[in-house]
Amino acid sequence: MLLPWQSPGTLSGRMARWGLWIVLGYGVVALLTPLLIHLGWLVDPNAGLDQPLYAAPSPAHWCGTDRLGRDVCVRTLAGSGVALQVVVIALLLALLIGVPLGMVSGYLGGAMDRLLVLLMDTLYTLPVLLLSVVLAFLLGRGLPNAAAALCVVYIPQYFRVVRNQTAQVKAELFVEAARSLGAGPAWILRHYLFRNVITTVPVLLTLNAADAVLVLGGLGFLGLGLPETIPEWGGDLQMALTAVPTGIWWTALFPGLAMFVLVLGLSFLGEGLESWLSGQRPG
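The chain above was modelled as a monomer; its predicted structure follows.
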């Protein structure tokens, strides 16, 4: 069976292929930018003050400089690595916590299941940005704290999806047969249920990554994300807020465009995967 990006004749294949190339491009930028800065081929993203303040885009500064004289292009490139690092850490932790909890809760049921469902449903009903703002305010600014805030936000989504699928699959005949032959809960969860309920997780992971990039940007814009010394798109947009009305558009355009393209790529990849896994082949 062809992977979605290997099916050029379908809409899902084209979307997945475009999304994959965009995400891979950001990954390459995230890996190369620190190396180029270390080698001196790119300036330090925090180096400023000796540069012209609010310099317009030019051959010397392709994307101009900000209010501190820092190169907007380098900060935008470096922001790719920061965004991917925070999002990957947060979602992997959410995945490692939410999936096992959902499987155990859906399979065992009982009082523990009802308690977990109540807790996760309560968290799920809260708006993502609002919950992340509250958590970021309580934890404080910093990369680990931002990742922890995003992790808590997305755990309920993995829990709900996996729990519901586990509750359905555990009633299948092959699970009943394994149970009648003496297989214990751990064996059934590991060998029978896991591979049947994990199929939708890659789609959810990709779509959550797109959402998490926006949420991280929102935290930075509100001043609750990362310290100013760390190049981050949301923080740079917040600093550009007072400059844009005066005609200094480049301080907001490039970090905003970088965030938009990454979210678009992740959304394309997620939608393509979802269509492929569901068996739909829109033309």
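DSSP finds ten helices and no strands in the chain.
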